[in-house]
Design a protein that fits this description.
The chain is mainly α and 102 residues long. It contains two helices and no strands. The longest helix is centred in the middle third of the chain and has 25 residues.
């Protein structure tokens, strides 16, 4: 995994983890504010705490993804899920393909 791929994967994991962490511990306000606002908005969103928790969760998940990718258990270069389309130098599995035989 290159450093660029690692950063992109981390950002994708972080963004997904943010939506997992956001609803944790939120409670709506009991009475709608008189100056306007939505009653369903959380009273204390604790966003800094949630951003820190998201960062820690994303780092743990990223380390797991990194370990799996570097171990060779999952590879997008080999195996049945590998890309074999145009521009690929991968050899297709199966019997050797040679000139047509009569």
């Amino acid at each position: 995994m290159t450093w660029f791929t690692g950063v992109v994967v981390y950002l994708l994991i972080w963004w997904t983890a943010l939506f997992i962490v956001l609803p944790i511990g939120t409670r709506p306000v009991d009475v709608a504010p008189e100056d306007g606002g939505w009653r369903g908005a959380p009273e204390k969103p604790l966003l800094l705490r949630k951003l820190a928790g998201t960062t820690v969760l994303a780092a743990i998940l990223w380390l797991g993804v990194f370990a799996i990718m570097e171990s060779g258990w999952v590879s997008f270069r080999d195996g049945w899920w590998a890309y074999t389309g145009p521009g690929s130098s991968a050899v297709l599995p199966g019997p050797a393909r040679g000139p047509a035989q009569n």
